[in-house]
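Q: What does the assembled structure look like for these inputs?
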Amino acid sequence: MSEKIRIGIVGYGNLGRGAELAVLQNPDMELIAVFTRRDPKLIRVSTEKVKVLPAKQAEKMINEIDVMILCGGSARDLPEQGPYFAQMFNTVDSFDTHARIPEYFAAMDKAAMAGKKTGIISIGWDPGLFSLQRMLAEAILPQGKEYTFWGRGVSQGHSDAIRKVPGVKYGVQYTIPKEDAVTRVRRGETPHLSAGDKHLRQCYVVAEEDADKEKIAAEIKSMPNYFADYETQVIFITEEQFKQEHTKMPHGGFVLRSGITGSNREHKQLMEFSLKLESNPEFTASVLVAYARAAYRLSGEGRYGAKTIFDIPLAYISPRSPAELRRELL
Amino acid sequence: MSEKIRIGIVGYGNLGRGAELAVLQNPDMELIAVFTRRDPKLIRVSTEKVKVLPAKQAEKMINEIDVMILCGGSARDLPEQGPYFAQMFNTVDSFDTHARIPEYFAAMDKAAMAGKKTGIISIGWDPGLFSLQRMLAEAILPQGKEYTFWGRGVSQGHSDAIRKVPGVKYGVQYTIPKEDAVTRVRRGETPHLSAGDKHLRQCYVVAEEDADKEKIAAEIKSMPNYFADYETQVIFITEEQFKQEHTKMPHGGFVLRSGITGSNREHKQLMEFSLKLESNPEFTASVLVAYARAAYRLSGEGRYGAKTIFDIPLAYISPRSPAELRRELL
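A:
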């Protein structure tokens, strides 16, 4: 490829910074600009060649940018930002509010079709790679049962919930797959397991100086939706411990399908896809950046509208040519 | 889908029988006929509704069959059968001679284009699912190293090689990943490992009555290409033991990519896809059958010619509609 794919990033939090780093690993891409709602002067990007612009100036960059990577959150940013950018740019985003995906897809499809652009939604690892593996495994082993385990890793939503409890100064929550459940499904058993049967929630908390720790622990453990239905551990630590050991963002998990083939003599067949990530946002951003390549190519072929990970031939995310893929990787 | 996808199977060995069983698990498909070069009277299929016909009569069935699953071997059958069937039928096959894939692709593409059919080649798990995972992981983590381990499982090629050694009555070879190598790569190390560093070859042999066992073992262990470069164990057993414990066809393995993201502070990221199969041919056949659905759909859209697993949007192998996939699996 002679011309590089020109990338823009909207939103410069953990995910946006991860996307910037991921672009640097892909020689067929070039980061043109970062768009922010904060004061651009406060943002320091990797090189001076990358512009930092107010989000509102994006429309002036229509001819400068091939694909916009939307790094905002699903709750408040993307429902608005997504369709706004999709009518002007090819986009990739990580919309992850599972229940609202059909609605978001429809809005993105409408905007992208109107602008003759391609908008790839819900990319990352869940939704994203895990969805792809669930679909793949189900199609191959229709007679079977699927299990998704998350962790060991930090859940932002649960960490936020802890930090809202009175008396909590800092807090982080790790989701941890339960060993016994993991062992059973990897052995090919197909038990019925609730999310609580599969996962343990471990909370590391720094309490305010004169806070009642027992009360904090009780309040966390009884929080509906977040903790009440889970085995929850609350561990109090010092501020120093917190800053030294609990500021990283590891995550991971796995999707396993336990299936059966054969007739008289049945055979167990296990498919498993797993991730062990030292940095969740950097990995998620790496997936977004690979799919930016697909958005660019699909758009170049006139395949406009909203797309998901299910719709895209995998070759579209690789920098290699189809002939090279067949020769080297098949 | 109101009308079922009408399937034909060419070749009725382990893979063909597996395909027959897999079709039964997919309510949107129907097996119409099995084609064989043997005497059709000698073949017993699952129900009387399925015809058993000489391979040469396939051309009379052009209007009865939507997709032909080619279950012949890569060495002698497919190079001839593939293009022959691809000009008349949509096809799926498991062509697995890695070095000859470009040549086979070209021949299949020419035949399928001439007949306005879709021919999906090299489907199964390696090549196939493992190829797909290698490609996916490389595109997401360009800075990294990929490892494929095979086993624990029976290698047909190596078992055949053992059985050609004078004095061997029965023999089977298991390829086994070496624990220490597996541990290192799962820990995120990126050592250089040859196939011999990664795998152990375990041979179970039944010797002829007055054969020289030491000579047999030495001959196996020194066999170039097959065993000489590997740690090889030769274990002599009785015919009874062999028949009781070594006639199944388990296999599996995993593809792991160990990558790095970030800049100043680097983060290790591990992606792994693994299979544990009690029946290798039944699983491979299940993959072929899922991709038969894709061949049918691609052909229906006029997307003719040869395709590989890299070219096909995953949604095409699922019986679910795109809207249902977004709602249920994304």
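The radius of gyration of chain A is 22 Å.
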